[in-house]
Design a protein that fits this description.
By secondary structure, the chain is mostly helical. It contains 17 helices and no strands. The protein is globular, with a radius of gyration of 33 Å. The termini are far apart.
């Protein structure tokens, strides 16, 4: 028993010694990392509460050798500006803005690939319009649309600098990495935002210029503001994507709203009507509405599938996107608009007279492929299915626009390639077209 009591007393004394030693060691460490200055009873000014001058003094003995060399390198650089020294690791010299680099930065501010897509969709409105278009109108519409898109995208990036810095896919944007100043970018946005509508106003039509200015406001103001407040931002963004074809339509002289002089005319299939085809009635507002609905509905399966596999970045930046709050509903919205694209292509376009009824049949094949992809994504809600659906809707739009040009009402491709002979109106002999 005496041995047991002796062992217990030794254990208690050992624990007491170790605990006191650990407390003393912790206090020594705490004192070593305390700030070297002491609080004085003298009244200090307001700024001293935020950054005291002595808080930047660092004990050299607590630094590693690599950190000491780095600090010494910076000190020598400051003390001897003219001396040649090696730049410390972790610092990067600012690139000189040569004309070539500046053009590259402007292209990044304008989101060049997105701007090219916007210009192509605007050109589809010009190409599918039944009204004649001249080369100056074609070029001015393309240039004006590109300038409007560049301004909208730059204004969007100016407002999202702190949020782009938190997303891996946007950290290398010019304003985030400070390749260009915000003032410089704002100047670029202002110049392009004024020049774009001006070109459209004087070279195309005032209505086209108003549509371009409205698109800048919708994207840079409404869409950007809603991204952090409501999931309805996707619907506003879809409206922005549906306006460029209307710009091409109005640039050729087409109207958007029906009137007594501009009525809506339905082109029924030949087996439902015996009336002859009136080519003068193709220019009607239903064609503009069909172009808008195609681009509007295409935005949802295209963007929703993209946002699904980058939803982590959106969540990190604090954006209120449907893919973050409800991924299942995000896929369901994409499926709904995938199904809606079927009657838009197979009924609305031939009924408006922009295409023949043969387009209603040929458009079913790409629509069936993409609807199947959207269905699989909605049913499984997986990242692999979302990527497949995104890739499908990348080629969907150019394929559909190409099919519309092939089946455009009043355009006989057989004469273009010389497969059909022309019959002169004066009753002369038939002469084959070379």
């Amino acid at each position: 028993m005496r041995k047991i009591h002796a062992f217990q007393s030794c254990s208690k004394s050992f624990v007491a010694c170790t605990s006191s030693a650990s407390r003393s060691l912790a206090s020594q460490k705490f004192l070593a990392y305390r700030r070297p200055y002491t609080v004085s009873s003298v009244r200090r000014d307001f700024t001293s509460f935020f950054c005291h001058n002595q808080q930047w003094s660092t004990r050299v003995d607590s630094l590693k050798p690599s950190e000491i060399n780095r600090v010494r390198g910076i000190a020598h650089a400051v003390a001897e500006p003219g001396a040649v020294h090696v730049a410390p690791a972790g610092f990067k010299e600012v690139e000189v803005l040569t004309p070539r680099r500046l053009l590259k930065i402007y292209a990044q501010l304008a989101k060049s690939r997105l701007t090219i897509l916007v210009v192509l969709t605007a050109m589809s409105g010009v190409a599918l319009s039944p009204l004649p278009a001249t080369v100056p109108i074609l070029l001015s519409t393309a240039v004006g649309t590109a300038l409007c898109s560049a301004s909208a995208n730059t204004l969007n990036q100016l407002q999202e600098i702190p949020y782009d810095a938190q997303m891996a896919r946007t950290r290398q944007r010019p304003l985030v990495r400070r390749a260009i100043s915000p003032l410089h970018a704002a100047g670029f946005a202002a110049v392009t935002g004024v020049a774009g509508p001006a070109v459209l106003w004087f070279m195309a039509s005032p209505l086209t210029a108003c549509l371009g200015a409205a698109n800048i406001a919708l994207y840079a103001a409404a869409y950007t503001w809603l991204k952090r407040r409501s999931v309805s931002n996707t619907w506003v963004g879809a409206v922005v994507g549906g306006i460029p074809p209307l710009m091409g339509w109005t640039a050729c002289g087409g109207n958007l709203l029906p009137s007594a002089d501009y009525p809506i005319h339905l082109f029924l299939p030949s087996f439902l009507t015996e009336a002859p085809l009136d080519m003068t009635m193709i220019d009607n507002p239903l064609g503009a509405l069909a172009l808008f609905m195609l681009l509007y509905s295409w935005q949802f399966p295209h963007f929703n599938s993209l946002s699904h596999f980058i939803r982590g970045s959106y969540a990190q930046a604090g954006y209120k996107m449907l893919c973050v709050l409800n991924p299942q509903k995000n896929a369901l919205v994409a499926l709904r608009h995938s199904l809606l694209l079927v009657p838009i292509c197979s009924i609305m376009f031939p009924l408006s007279g922009l295409t023949t009824w043969a387009f209603a049949v040929t458009s079913l094949i790409p629509n069936a492929i993409c609807v199947r992809g959207s269905w699989n994504w909605w049913r499984r809600c997986g990242e692999k299915e979302a990527r497949i659906s995104f890739q499908q809707y990348l080629w969907y739009l150019p394929v559909m626009l190409a099919l519309m040009m092939v089946h455009k009402q009043g355009l006989d491709w057989r004469r273009w390639v010389g497969m059909q002979e022309e019959v002169p109106s004066d009753g002369a002999d038939v002469v084959p077209k070379p």
